Amino acid sequence: MEDMYVKPGNQEQGWNDPPQFSYGLQMAHGPQRNLLNKRAVPVIASGLGVPPTAPPSSNPLLPPPCGKAHSPLHPVHPPPDGVAAPPVGPMRSQREADSSQSAPDMEAVMLALNRALDACRKSVKDQVCNDVAKRLRLLEDSWESGRLSLPVRRRMDTLSQELQSGRWESADEVHRSLMVDHVTEVSQWMVGVKRLIAETRNLSPELLEPLFNLKEQVQDPVEPVQVTGSQS
Q1: 229 φ, ψ to 5°?
Q2: Got the DSSP string for 134-198?
Q3: pTM (predicted TM-score)
Q4: What's the confidence (pLDDT) of residue 56?
Q5: The domain 106-219 belongs to what CATH superfamily?
């Protein structure tokens, strides 16, 4: 998935600043817990059933046992300035996630959101609908002016498709991922999108029919009929 990536830490604070995991990786791995009340179990020697013998004396004045030598210590040095440690495992960088798909169509996204808003106007208060419309205009202006990054535009495309399919939980999940990963870009208008999802999911099937039919109209556009002139 494109939302499973690792963002670098704050390099201005220090080389060992921890990285920032995207919302998709946080949900995939789950919350990490430290079991502080777990009882420690002593290690038993394999096949003997008795604990291992005590180690030899650690007196620094005595020579080490025969056949054994102290292993040299290798201190860990930080990487050079400006170089972050690479991620481990299948996690991708944000740049790789950004280049995995093509740019979505703004008109298709806004058409789906506005179609959902039109369905809400028949049963939702005018004050709520007007506020949602105001937020959607902020979204469109930010998109047209180039202030939205490619991951934000892609996820909004996914959110609009989930709305057209009636998958409210998935649309709300995309909304939460945007608030976690790109809050500075979406904070001005995402509250309207969230309210739109909440109001649309409560509509009756009759009111949602124009929204659901929009997906079929986009997939199967009606070809214009060509009228040929009369032959003399």
Answers
A1: -75, 155
A2: HHHHHHHHHHHTT-S-HHHHHHHHHHHHHHHHT-HHHHHHHHHHHHHH-HHHHTTTHHHHHHHHH
A3: 0.57
A4: 56
A5: Functional domain of the splicing factor Prp18 (1.20.940.10)
